[in-house]
Amino acid sequence: MSPTVNGATVVAGAAAPATTASAPPTRRRMSSTRWAALAFLAPLLAYLAIFYAYPLYRNVELSLHDYTPRAFVQGNAEFLGLANYADVVTSSTFGLALRNTALFTLVSIAAQYAIGLALAVFFHHHFRLSAVLRAMFLVPWLLPLIVSASTWSWMLNSENGIVNSVLEAFGIGQINWLTSPDSALWSVIVANIWLGIPFNLVILYAGLQNISGDLYEAAALDGANAWQRFWRVTFPLLRPVSAITLLLGLIYTLKVVDVIWIMTTGGPGNASITLAVWSYREAFGTGQPDFSPAAAVGNLLIVIALAAGFVYLYLQHRQERS
Asked: What top-level class would CATH report for the domain 83-148+178-321?
């Protein structure tokens, strides 16, 4: 028989529906949490779609059509497929631009990293005025690129540049730094190295702060000299920071346009042209915009940067597994 409470019959199992009734509020809470997460993600997704996905899509579309200024306005560009890429690769400028890009990029990031690492290790040994000197090394990073490039262009001017004036004081004749095919590329490389040293200094100096001083003390007790402590302790422990520093430096240097354009405009002739400068010149630098080949060259740069990124991820994954 069912129990009776105050004359009312209590049926066994009557409390079961209460458990079922509590499920909808739980589902509602999960649903509200999901919507809140989507609301937080929405600005990021919108930013990526507007400033990354859509420009990339438009760049690919430009490279696959024949976009003249007229077609760009009217929107009736002829579809060419991969013809623009074929024209770019078979162009007489492509080989020179690719060689200059490789030379400009590799020499720049290697010198920037080496000098930045040397300065970071130097400033890691705290001494009087180290903070002031470290702040002074950030000046090239803080200046607008147009100011830095214009300053270097004036310093290396053949007629009245300060560099030639100093050389003449030592009996060395005039050198055409920016107007000679033999020296134009190396001149912009030197300027770009100077601009990139502060970035490497800041990142590598921050990495050095995370290395425990106990490791250096233990190495010194084992009889290691300064070079052995650097090679056996500092350099290996800086490897993760060094990898991301070199990757960011590579991506940044691949797309350098302003420094080269202000100093040499890719000349004389094509002596200092790179893929990035070539793309800019095709689109905006000739007075007769040719957007489609410019987009094709830009997409080749994107592929190179992506390849470098995948290599970095592969090496990082292999290091984590080992």
From this structure: mainly alpha
